[in-house]
């Protein structure tokens, strides 16, 4: 995949919920796309977990 294509795709992925991302993973047969969706899902989840941990520290 070209860099520009990936960047555009990431912008679209940012708008999706977790279940929508998982639906994309299950619907695509393209392994590059599937890997990108899974990577983004995990990245999004790890960022949210980190933010929650930070919030708890300062309570």
Write the layout of secondary structure elements.
Elements: H1 3-13, H2 18-27, H3 31-57
How far is the N terminus from the C terminus? 44 Å
In terms of per-residue confidence, which ranges show pLDDT below 50 for 5 or more consecutive residues? none
Q: Helical region count?
A: 3
Sheet with most strands: none
What general outline do the C-alpha atoms trace? elongated
Q: Provide mean pLDDT, rounded.
A: 84
**Strand proportion:** under 5%
Kindly describe this structure.
It is a single chain. This protein has one domain. 81% of the residues lie in helices and 0% in strands. The chain contains three helices and no strands. The longest helix is centred in the last third of the chain and has 27 residues, at 31-57. The protein is elongated and about 45 Å long.
Task: Give a short synopsis of this structure.
The chain has helices spanning 3-13, 18-27, 31-57.
Tag the structure with descriptive keywords:
single chain, mainly alpha, 3 helices
């Amino acid at each position: 995949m070209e860099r520009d294509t990936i960047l555009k795709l990431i912008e679209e992925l940012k708008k999706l919920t977790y279940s929508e991302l998982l639906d994309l993973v299950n619907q695509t047969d393209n392994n590059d796309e599937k890997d990108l969706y899974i990577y983004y899902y995990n990245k999004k989840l790890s960022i949210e977990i980190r933010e929650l941990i930070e919030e708890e520290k300062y309570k």
